[in-house]
Amino acid sequence: MNRRVVITGIGAVTPLGLSYRETWESLLGGKSGIGKTGRESLKGLPYPAAGEVKGFDEVSPFTEKEKRRLDPFIQYLVVSAMEAVRDAGLGSIEDPLIIVGSSRGGISGVEDSLCREGRRIRPSLMTSTMIGMGVSAVAERLGVAASGFGVSSACASGAIAVGEACRAIRAGDATIAIAGGTEAPLTRFCMEGYGGMGLLSRRADPSASRPFDRDRDGFVLAEGATVMVLEELGSALERGAGIYAEIRGFETVITPDGQIRPLASVEAGLMERLIQRAGLSQEDVDFVSAHATSTPVGDRVEAEAIFRVFGKTVKVTGLKGATGHMLGASGALETAVAASVLRHGIIPGTINLAAPEDEMPPISIVREAERGEYRAGITNSFGLGGINVSLLLTRYGGLQGSKGQ
Known about the structure:
By secondary structure, the chain is of the alpha/beta class. It folds into two domains: 5-238, Peroxisomal Thiolase, Chain A, domain 1 (3-Layer(aba) Sandwich), CATH 3.40.47; 247-394, Thiolase/Chalcone synthase (Peroxisomal Thiolase, Chain A, domain 1), CATH 3.40.47.10. The protein has 13 helices and 15 strands. It has helices spanning 20-28, 64-69, 72-87, 107-115, 125-128, 132-142, 157-170, 188-196, 233-238, 264-277, 296-310, 320-323, 330-344; strands spanning 5-13, 34-36, 49-51, 97-101, 147-151, 176-183, 224-232, 245-254, 287-289, 315-317, 346-347, 364-365, 370-371, 376-383, 387-394. Helix 3 (72-87) packs across helix 6 (132-142), helix 7 (157-170) crosses helix 13 and helix 10 (264-277) packs across helix 11. The two termini are 22 Å apart.
């Protein structure tokens, strides 16, 4: 069985907005969600910029007791899931599949408990910081009995969650899935950890995250969540659902010789296999939503991989200039944005790009939002540990086979 899978609903809480619509419009407008953090716990660190969710209480459905019980990464997830279900027009759901990805899970709650002098560790900390608890919280809030699980594979977590939900629907194991990624890593633990690895930017201004720019100096840590409703095509058509895009392929590969160092040959091979298994050709793909975290090595290697596969023929965008790096939530957001590109025919630009690095191959980077006839796109998520993920999406009804077929 190989059923077709479409995206029918999207929800998000990000540094750019408290809904997916606000986030999408901010991306198209070239806005930045990055700024100098004012959090007391982060004072004195040499990494002053962050992508913070602002004004979350405006959309939070949680009581004060629930806020104490549920880690922020779960709260962001639940609000995003509720929006995605509304956006999909689902009044009720029977037996959905729920898959959630997060790199750090409840790191906020862990740090808060361990670092407050004299504070007793609450028993609820054990459950509230579990990645799988996000799945349970979504099911509880929606009032449904569901199957599902949590995924933790570094920055690739959200993309893997979406891909595994797609596989389950294709195989006939589910008809509707709620899938995405969530993260609340703006902690001293994470800042000092990633900073100590030499991965974080030391700039304090909104342009600190600079995908592909020659002056980039590292990524900007960010928080947020993005959730999608995935649905078997027949189900979506039967109930008259709006369709963002179709998911045509999902592939993963682990870099064989190093947990941190990326390899262009591995990333290029991943995209090539994805295209081939989807029954398409390189010429069919119109854009790539790059992982592009703004690290000196990572961006250069990904640019080389994209150039090996496509040359200058595809448009490339890097969203993390606007959002910062939401770790496991980034891949989910970038998949959602790719779906919106295909639905609306406009691709967001890569902000904070003054001039590409001279050593990078000449890929076609989109600088400002650009309208076009987009039929297929790839989104990349490459995580620490060498876990690489790519998803291929097509415009629904717009591309069913390769030009050569």
